[in-house]
Amino acid sequence: MHQVASNPHHEHHFESTETVRDIVIGLSDGLTVPFALAAGLGAVASAHLVVVAGLAEIAAGSIAMGLGGYLAARGDVEHYASELKREQSEIVTRPEDEAAEIYEIFEKYQVSREAATPVLHALQANPEAYVDFMMRFELGLEEPAANRAHVSAMTIAASYIAGGFVPLFPYMILSTNAAALKLSVGITLLALALFGAIKGRLVGTGALRSAVQTTLIGGAAAAAAYGLAHLLNAA
To answer: Whole-model pTM?
Structure first.
């Protein structure tokens, strides 16, 4: 008699990588671009003008980034639909070629032709599963969610807005641009570190490692953008 394990094994995998990617895109740009704009304008303009220009940039940037995310996600949906239609046709019109591709897929995993043949026959008896198998293992494509484009656009835009207010906030509460710049640098780097730590914990790469990596990359991008803006203002 087999004894049932009292503590069954449960695997937990993070499955929201696309959402995390959208947040990373929106938040990283939102933290760096408004920071560079505010820092550059702060050298020649009043705090009020910096805030007005910063808010305008956040609005325009979030719309542009959101639209870019929408178009990219729509492109993924259209590409998947096109490849799906092609595979559905090929398993009917070119069965020998598709069977050969099945064997090639299994060869990559050290599975012999004899062992793969029963799987091939099972797939051929279920066209829907056959097509899904080919989409996943031949083309490496997963079916996008039906509302993926809209969710991506909203996620990127909202993340950009949230990130943009972080470096701009000091200019809203402080009267001198020099003090605002120092506080903006500090809270922007802190926000990058916190965001990196959360991202690392979610995707399993390690909170500390991700925090350091995100802070260094985001800080370098912000510094480069600030330096360019400062040079243009000085010209």
So the answer is: 0.75
